[in-house]
């Protein structure tokens, strides 16, 4: 009964979050950040419920070598309730969402998740059943593959740091390529990135916006600054480099 109540409650949260995200674009500017925060809070609550409602799931997921992880990609026409349906499938099959991203791209919806399952022999069948249940969701195309983890649970190598980079400028082809190339040439990596377009507050100029999380090797802040200032100068972009605060973003 408790698991059923948790699923029902989380379903309402998911629907509310997704409804906020698919609001008309005229209202997006003031609400997208709120919708994203709602979804992140939902994921945290979902992770807690998916482990606490299964008697031994929390213990088994924290035992070394006992976790099966799957990368899930799903997309389809946007509609209310997609997040809720996917969340129910994960929870029903004993999974736990460890990381997730989702976005609405015009009329389409896309989601990527890292889902963990307890790896005891009796629970491996849950992964297969989970894949079949995802396939059964109407108008949603999904793929599931094994995670190719290359780092341990404690995180990345010593000395590695992260910075949040914001770019804004007149929209024209080549901005994303120039940004990615500047980072690659300096041994840096984009871990996540979102882009969008908007009309400038004054006039009808179309702006291109980038919000990226960049992983830096040790002592590379000066190189990052040098590369991005060159973009700022050569392409007429506004550049902002911020400290990465993952806990602050979840508040």
Automatic annotation (TrEMBL):
Domain (ACT): residue spans on this chain: 71-153, 164-244
SUPFAM superfamilies per the UniProt record, alphabetical: ACT-like
PROSITE patterns linked: ACT
Highest taxon of source: Eukaryota
Pfam family, one: ACT_6
PANTHER family: UPF0237 PROTEIN MJ1558 (PTHR34875:SF6)
This protein's name: Unnamed product
Source organism per UniProt: Ostreococcus tauri (Marine green alga)
Higher taxonomy: Eukaryota, Viridiplantae, Chlorophyta, Mamiellophyceae, Mamiellales
């Amino acid at each position: 009964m408790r698991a059923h109540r948790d699923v029902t409650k989380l379903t309402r949260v998911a629907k509310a979050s997704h409804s906020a995200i698919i609001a008309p674009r005229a209202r997006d500017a003031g609400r997208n950040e709120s919708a994203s925060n709602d979804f992140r809070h939902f994921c945290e609550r979902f992770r807690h419920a998916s482990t606490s409602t299964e008697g031994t799931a929390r213990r088994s997921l924290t035992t070394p070598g006992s976790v099966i992880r799957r990368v899930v990609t799903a997309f389809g026409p946007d509609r209310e309730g997609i997040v809720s349906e996917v969340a129910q499938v994960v929870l029903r099959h004993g999974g736990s969402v460890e990381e997730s991203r989702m976005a609405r791209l015009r009329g389409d919806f896309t989601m990527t998740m890292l889902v963990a399952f307890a790896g005891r022999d009796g629970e491996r069948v849950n992964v297969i059943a989970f894949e079949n249940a995802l396939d059964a969701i109407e108008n949603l195309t999904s793929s599931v593959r094994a995670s190719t983890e290359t780092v341990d649970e404690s995180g990345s190598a010593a000395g590695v740091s992260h910075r949040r980079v914001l770019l804004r400028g007149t929209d024209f082809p080549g901005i994303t390529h120039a940004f990615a190339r500047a980072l690659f040439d300096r041994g840096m990596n984009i871990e996540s990135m979102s882009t969008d377009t908007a009309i400038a507050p004054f006039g009808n100029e179309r702006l291109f916006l980038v919000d990226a999380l960049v992983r830096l090797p040790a002592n590379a802040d000066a190189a990052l600054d040098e590369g991005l200032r060159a973009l700022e100068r050569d392409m007429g972009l506004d550049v902002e480099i911020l400290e990465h605060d993952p806990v602050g973003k979840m508040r």
